[in-house]
């Protein structure tokens, strides 16, 4: 790839360790305020992330999709660092596990709604979003 000023480094870390580390021409993430695309020499920033995908463009038509479970992104000096509770590269996603998690979360949500149990409803909704995000990223 070209000189350091025309590339950025993308690093994605979770409590389990580094999930992704590569050079890119652009990264697109979903912040709580909407979609954010970062190219080399973007101004420094920090933003909270939604449970959604990160798209990394490595140039020459090479792209990576990563499922990001919330957290935040920090960008400075052409290094984008995402810190999240969990994150999985597209090829590492176990779709049947995510489908089971989705069904469990839907069932928990249904029961919690019947019982008017808001805490359980909120937790089930978050788990459901995580599972659906993994399924969506895997099926891209
Ligand atoms: P499950 O109920 O299937 O464990 P979860 O949403 O509760 O799903 P997390 O607590 O978010 O799971 O993640 C625990 C660990 O398992 C993390 O390292 C995460 O990357 C990994 N993980 C969770 N679901 C999947 C999946 N479908 N495919 C690959 N890795 C997964």
TrEMBL record:
Renumbered residue ranges of the record's region Disordered: 94-118
Any one GO molecular-function label of the UniProt entry: ATP binding
Subcellular location: Cell membrane
Domain ATP synthase epsilon subunit C-terminal: 92-138
Keywords: ATP synthesis, Cell membrane, CF(1), Hydrogen ion transport, Ion transport, Membrane, Transport
ATP synthase F1 complex delta/epsilon subunit N-terminal domain sequence ranges: 8-87
Record PANTHER family: ATP SYNTHASE DELTA/EPSILON CHAIN (PTHR13822), ATP SYNTHASE EPSILON CHAIN, CHLOROPLASTIC (PTHR13822:SF10)
Name the record gives this protein: ATP synthase epsilon chain
Native source organism of the sequence: Secundilactobacillus malefermentans
Lineage: Bacteria, Bacillati, Bacillota, Bacilli, Lactobacillales
């Amino acid at each position: 790839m070209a000189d350091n000023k025309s590339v950025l480094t993308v690093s994605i870390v979770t409590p389990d360790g580094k999930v992704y580390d590569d050079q890119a021409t652009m990264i697109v993430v979903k912040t709580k305020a909407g979609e954010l695309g970062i190219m080399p020499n973007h101004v420094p920033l920090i933003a909270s992330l939604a449970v959604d995908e990160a798209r990394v463009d490595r140039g020459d038509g090479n792209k990576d999709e990563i499922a990001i479970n919330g957290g935040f992104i920090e960008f400075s000096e052409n290094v984008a660092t995402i810190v999240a509770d969990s994150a999985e590269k597209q090829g590492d996603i176990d779709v049947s596990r995510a489908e089971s998690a989705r069904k469990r979360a839907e069932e928990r949500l249904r029961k919690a709604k019947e019982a008017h149990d808001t805490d359980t409803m909120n937790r089930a909704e978050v788990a459901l979003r995580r599972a659906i995000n993994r399924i969506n990223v895997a099926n891209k």
